[in-house]
Amino acid sequence: MIKMVVDVWKKPEMTDEQFKRRWLVEHGTLVKEHARAMGFVKYIQSHKIPSPEIEAFAAERGWQRPADGLTEVWWESMDAMQAAMSSSEGQKASAILQQDEEQFIDVKKISAYLAEEKVIFDYQNQ
């Protein structure tokens, strides 16, 4: 399987709670409705939580301010992703999702890439 990893930034005029609710409830539902057309087999949202310890850890290292969240979208394969994205249904669904994202995400800050996981260890699944 492959996944697209997306750093998500809220629009500056939104509070953290407004953003989280809009992303989770409204957008999450919309993604689920269009998942088959897009060829998605898995969709995960990771919502940032406040952590003074991690903020201090990052500051000590000179790291940049993190995104407000992270999205992971999974496909069975590169071929499956390309087939879904090039289909007329996939293109329509993509346009609908993009239009929705523009309502609550600072799209000028988004970054995304495709990834293949390489598990080094997983103590939860032994």
For the structure shown, list the relevant keywords.
126 residues, alpha+beta, Alpha-Beta Plaits, four-stranded antiparallel β-sheet, 4 helices, 44% helix
Rg from alpha-carbon coordinates:
16 Å
Q: Return residue spans where pLDDT drops below 50 for at least 5 consecutive residues.
A: none
Distance between the termini: 21 Å
| Order of strands, widest sheet | 2-3-1-4
Q: What is the CATH class designation?
A: Alpha Beta
Q: What would you say this structure looks like, in words?
A:
44% of the residues lie in helices and 20% in strands. The protein is α+β, with helices and mostly antiparallel strands and 126 residues long. Helix 1 (16-38) runs antiparallel to helix 4. The two termini are 21 Å apart.
